[in-house]
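Researcher: Let's run the pair from yesterday's discussion. Sequence first, then tokens, for each.
Model: Starting with the first of the pair.
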Amino acid sequence: AATVYQEPQLLVRVEPVYSDWARQMHLQGTVGVRATIGTDGVPHSVECAGGNALLCRIAVEAVAKWRYQPATSDGRPVDAATLINFNFELH
């Protein structure tokens, strides 16, 4: 029988907020955040996967507050690795 895998589903998303310093420095660009969504639906091992270090730190802080319906394999919760990209643009 084939394994039935269900991706984690985002329930609570907290948007990253530009710091005053990042705004004053006119920092923009795309950053990547790597995380493991635990069986509890909480992102663990949240880390920068690329991009400006300051913007990445802002994104990591936001992702740490996200909550998910965990991934499942054959109906049982399992850890799931994910990569989230953020595009920071000043308006």
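Model: Moving on to the second of the pair.
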Amino acid sequence: MSKFLKLSASLLAAALSVHVAAQTTVKVESAWARATVQGQKATGAFMKLTAPQATRLVAVSTPVAGVAEIHEMKMDGGVMKMRAMPMLDLPANQAIELKPGSYHVMLMDLKSPLMKDSSVALTLTFKDAKGVESKQQISVPVNTGMPAEKGHGDHQH
């Protein structure tokens, strides 16, 4: 009987840990990558990330680029500068926007041009407050510019 209870308890614990892991999925919205021209070796990928609990984006990988890094652009002494970041904090339930001129994913050493209307596979690696890593694979459409916001692209102002 005690073996049964121990087995039941361990199965319950395993089920709960799977349930908790499933809750750490980061919501990815409005993702896109900027199209390139022949010979261009770098571009950016952009998206909005919302984590259900405090999490960090710690790495990005893709088969289309030799290097994929988390970058930040900001003004420094009147000059716009870009730098790689080891990670990006995602506070609980707060949307963090990766957009041109701000935080973004830099794709460098591109293996071929990124053509408009194609897509790029990205693997995002997150680390939660307990240090547990999780990976999320997404497919990102390639566009020449930021896609119109839903509901705002159908009319002119």
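Researcher: Give me one sentence on the second I can quote.
Model: The radius of gyration is 19 Å.
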